[in-house]
Amino acid sequence: MDIRRVQMTGGSSFIVTLPKDWAESVGLKKNDPLRLNPQQDGSIIITTADSADSSTCVTRIIDVEGLTDANFIFRMLVGAYMSGFGLIEVVSSSRLSNTVLDVVGKMTQMAIGIEIIEEYDNKIVLKDLVDPSEMKMGKSVERMRVLVRNMLTDVTSALKENDSSFIDDIIARDGDVDRLGWLITRHTNMFQRDVGLLKRIGMDHSEITSNYTISRIIERIGDHAVLMSKNIRKIIGHEGHNDLRNEAAKLCDATISVFAKSFATISGSDPKSASDCANECRDLSEITKNLNEYVHGKDPDISLSINLMTSSLRRICEYSMDLAELAINLIMGKSEKKVVKRVS
Fold this sequence. Notes:
The chain has helices at residues 20-25, 70-83, 98-110, 137-161, 165-193, 195-201, 205-231, 242-265, 271-287, 300-333, and strands spanning 7-9, 13-15, 34-38, 44-48, 59-63, 87-91, 114-119, 123-128. By secondary structure, it is an alpha+beta fold. A four-stranded mixed beta sheet has the order 5-6-8-7, covered by helices on one side. The protein is flat. The chain starts with 6 loop residues before the first strand and ends in an 11-residue tail after the last helix.
């Protein structure tokens, strides 16, 4: 850490010198403009003027020469996308294989905003066409919440109506949740690197971090909705399990309720309400274990399916409790007047 003392010039202006090593490393010269971005925590971030929106023009080159593992190639593409690169070049010294072409095509279908802008025998160039300032993180998180809530509702409907047709919709929606999760991760990385972009969207680092954390929690809840949809297949379509289905549906309804309450606390201002919600989530997490009592003496496959479903319900309650506890952290981090004490 380099500590420098504030000095005064002209009798009224404060000045502080910049580290020479840093200035030379970024090519700073006399009379070059700098951007000063005050932060809510009282700090200030200094960047060169030409660094604004720099993340949108950074290129990541992926050499796929000799690679045949489609999963590995796909993971590299997803990693480059979520890291925030504006351009992704897939290159090879020889002609690109059909495996690579198929993977790139799959990637453009799954990822939001990425498109092929150039294609040759040995190179494909992908570009992000989405303006991060136009894709509000809060709205993306809200859409994830709605999708996951609908997934959980479909699990309940499948149980109540004894109808497995709801399950396919659940799995399809999970793909949309994942795509939004990738986009939020991408924008989080872009905003962390590009202060100018962060300033343009009117958010600070704490808001970006909290939105990213919320999106990750919601994504995991969605994963458990998919697991539940797969595990209830054993008890759907059989009239002999009506009591079991009804009990499971009641617990699903209660779980949807605490998930909705916990998410609502994020935008609230009452830490007591958020704490009460966290306690409700914790209590319901214990109650879900009672579902296992309904499968004593039943077919082992039925028992296993219910046990796995119970585990997912418990995890959703715990994730909902995480949301409520995050809400408390956010509420306590806000204040009308911040007092900064100097430690000598």
